[in-house]
Design a protein that fits this description.
single chain; alpha/beta; Rossmann fold; Helicase, Ruva Protein, domain 3; five-stranded parallel beta sheet; globular
């Protein structure tokens, strides 16, 4: 329990020592990935706060390569599941197969048994498959036959969906989307970054080997430190104001948003916003959270937790616009 400035100072020193691997990971990934610093930053926030991430962006923006590179820097096990309409739950979690030699059924584990799982185009698979993945995400365990298997730590699901190709897709239920800590929108690289991407590809630099620069033990230690980062009561109040403004906008001088919002952020929004802000502070080597940490991560935590009315859709208002308006209006401590 942090009670005074001396405690914060000691925590700061511990975090500055423990957070060294963050820069090493970012440096190693930058050897392969040009730009996309925002995406890499959010992947690290998800990793440090033990939260799953939903990535949305058009194909070709290095989503898979970034995730694979991140797993290689930690020497963790990476698996990729390509979601398709004919996918079955057993294709994700595994199944029982009959061994003719022993005359017994044995367990064949599925690709969910990895530290980093890329669920590519998650909205292409039917609800049964998505619910099988959701159970693993929530319970951190999988049941095959009569046996329950605990998943290894760290366990991080990074799901992608394509915002432009909606034919033959199954929209994710709101309850499932809410289980993702962050929803990150991936944008195109800048002109200069894309020029560098062309040059690297022509030189074959994308096959550069990634070095292991962090251990799973360091990640586990960092996660413990993240939860202990100091958050002032005023910052907690700021987080609650942001979430409650999405539920009751009229109480925060945001009457114009009331007809646009069908439902606001759940209590998971408050929990995840606090935890993500702490993880973001850790990546900046700070032992305390400042309002800018909350503002920096708020869109990623909130954008998929706000439901819009038909009126909002008719006016082309997105949840992004709603969160921006809330952040502009809610008083910063």
């Amino acid at each position: 329990m942090i009670t005074n400035a001396e405690d914060i100072k000691l925590l700061n020193e511990r975090i500055q020592q423990a957070a060294g691997f963050v820069e090493r990971i970012e440096s190693e990934i930058s050897r392969v990935i040009v730009g996309q610093n925002y995406m890499v930053s959010r992947l690290l926030v998800g990793l440090l706060s033990n939260g799953h991430v939903l990535l949305e962006g058009v194909p070709g923006l290095a989503k898979t390569l970034s995730i694979k590179s991140l797993s290689q820097t930690i020497h963790a096990h990476f698996s990729r599941i390509q979601f398709t309409p004919d996918l079955l739950p057993a294709d994700v979690i595994g199944t029982m197969i009959y061994n003719q030699q022993s005359g017994q059924f044995v367990v064949r584990k599925g690709p969910i048994f990895a530290n980093f799982v890329l669920a590519d185009e998650i909205n292409r698979a039917p609800a049964k498959v998505q619910s099988a993945l959701l159970e693993a995400m929530q319970e951190k365990q999988v049941t095959i036959g009569d046996t329950t298997f605990k998943l290894d730590e760290p366990f991080l699901v990074l799901a992608t969906q394509n915002p432009i190709d909606q034919e033959g897709t199954y929209p994710l239920p709101e309850a499932q989307v809410d289980r993702f800590m962050l929803k990150v929108l991936i944008d195109y690289p800048s002109r200069s970054e894309e020029q560098l991407i062309i040059r690297q590809n022509m030189l074959g630099a994308t096959s550069t080997p990634i070095n292991q620069v962090a251990s799973i033990q360091e990640i586990q230690q960092a996660r413990s430190l993240v939860r202990g980062i100091y958050m002032d009561e005023k910052i907690e109040g700021y987080i609650l104001d942001i979430v409650f403004a999405s539920r009751q906008p009229e109480k925060f001088k945001l009457e114009k948003l009331k007809p646009l919002i069908s439902y606001g952020g759940s209590p998971r929004a408050s929990i995840n916003l606090a935890l993500a802000a702490k993880a973001f502070a850790f990546t900046k080597k700070r032992g305390y959270v400042i309002p800018d940490d909350v503002k920096s991560i708020a869109k990623d935590v909130m954008r998929h937790r706000i439901g819009l009315t038909y009126e909002a859709e008719a006016e082309n208002v997105t949840s992004e616009h709603v969160v921006e308006e809330i952040l502009r209006t809610v008083q910063v401590p």
